[in-house]
Write a structure and sequence with these properties.
By secondary structure, the chain is α+β, with helices and mostly antiparallel strands. It contains 6 helices and 3 strands.
């Protein structure tokens, strides 16, 4: 087997595993999925984002972001209102509940990721981060 194909497959498998386990952790602890967390984190870092901008930032379709936004609205974690300057645009903001859940999710994922990479030495972690940055600039 070609080493580059093997490497790409290993990276893909690792990414899928991290996503599945992160999603499960967030579902169990906070009642949200990884996709919903990504939207909360995106809005948290850039308040009043439009749904289209969220979709572009996360590499998702507007339809998938719209579905997740509706779920987050129903859970009281975000608000969405029409932009007074452009009635076709919707501006999205976190509620206080959304801020708390976003912070708790970030902490839960940080703890999981620490345990996931805890067997690596600090130097190995630095090297891995550098390699991943080279692959995904």
């Amino acid at each position: 087997m070609d080493h580059s194909q093997s490497l790409a497959q290993k990276i893909h498998n690792l990414s899928a595993q991290l996503s599945r386990e992160s999603d499960q952790i967030l579902q169990e602890r906070l009642g949200i999925g990884l996709s919903q967390y990504k939207i909360l984190a995106s809005v948290s870092s850039n308040p009043r984002l439009q749904q289209r901008a969220i979709a572009v930032e996360l590499g998702q379709t507007e339809a998938s972001v719209s579905r997740q936004v509706k779920l987050l609205l129903a859970k009281g974690m975000i608000t969405s209102r029409k932009n007074p300057a452009n009635r076709r645009e919707h501006l999205t903001e976190l509620t206080i509940k959304g801020e708390r859940v976003c912070e708790a999710a970030a902490q839960s994922l940080a703890n999981y990721h620490r345990a996931f990479t805890g067997h690596l030495s600090p130097r190995q972690q630095e090297v891995l981060i550098g390699l991943l940055q080279d692959l995904n600039p």
